Amino acid sequence: MRRQVEIFISGAGVAGLTLAILLADKGIKVGIADPVKALPLAKTPHGTRTAAIQNRFLPLLRQTGALDEIEDISAPLQAIRIIDPEGQNFREKLEAVFDAQEITNEKLSLNIPIQPLRAALYEAALNNALIDFFDETKTQNITFGESANIVTLEDGSEIAASMCVSADGVNSVFRKSANIGIKTKNYNQTAMTCILSHTKSHQNMSTEFHYPGGPFTLVPLPGDKSSLVWLERTKFAETYLSYNRTDFEKLLQEKSHGILGQLKLESSVDSLPLRSFTAKELTANRLILLAESAHCLSPIGAQGLNMSLKDIEVFLQILEKNLYLGQNIGCMAMLASYGHERIHDTKLRAGAVHGLNQIVSNSLPVSKAARRFGLNILKSTPRLKQKIMNIGMSSD
Predict the structure, then answer these.
(1) Which of 27, 206, 247, 270 is a plausible cystine mate for 243, CB 3.0–4.6 Å?
(2) DSSP state, 72?
(3) Quick one: 305 and 233 in the same domain?
(4) pLDDT digits (tens, 9 = 90+) for 53-107
(5) C-alpha span between 64 and 70 (Å, rounded)
(6) Are 261 and 198 part of one and the same domain?
């Protein structure tokens, strides 16, 4: 028997689950499918990946009820310290600090562990009567129709939906079914992530070292712990990942210049080849793309999940406006508004992140000079620094 929902979401990651809960809060019947079932929050490991969520998007997560469940394992990021360690010795480093107090904010963002966040969202969605969960099965096909799209799942289930949302990541079935192409950039870099403990306080300050292979970033977690996101050229990363625990910790100590005291690994070291892409279009017949089915960027600038939450924010605003005007869910006007609102910002931020990665992850003399010149300008021009912080936090 074919099930019916108003909106069907492919992909129950953080973005898909957040959207499902917020749609249900508006009284909309939602279906959502994902092949990976989440563990109960109490049994979910911390994991090595975290996301620094900007202040403006925290109310969205709080509205789902999930943030209250994991706030005690998250940490406020009150300042960002950028260090260019180039020179004859570390004393010749260049450093710029971006402090939330400079723009009269208590914090810049909240660093949240991804796996527990998904688990908390998953539990909230399971307990919502307006959300039909199709877990441990994935979207196999979509048939586009005039008044509804028909979704076929891998287990044979069929769902009719007035509108569909693609939140199923880089290899999105919906995006491919709609023949929407992507623009890809390969960086020959690998992202390494892990959790560290340290003997000196991070003082709720993120520290980012700019090395030729990519940034080495320590992001605060509660207590004496930090998450590490380290981008490195793949050939070197593969060597480092073969190190035993003791040698890897020695390497981390060297890279961090002891800025947080003695470092100790508190997790495994995970890695992922770095690749970015943007979808050439964000809509098709009764379908929108959001989150990592629409864009996947380098972690430089911490734009990834914030951009996904911006997608959700914009879509909910458009949906509310169109329903108020009496238009049906998934109509052309709704799709056109979403595409118009998001495509320019997505391309602009993708270009900015790519450009930043090229400057930071480069050993060419001109790039080194540009990095140090930029940091010197920021250090000596407080108003410019404040403006950059406001732009970075706006997501507009």
Answers:
(1) 247
(2) G
(3) no
(4) 999 999 999 999 999 999 999 999 999 998 988 654 555 678 888 888 877 688 9
(5) 12
(6) yes
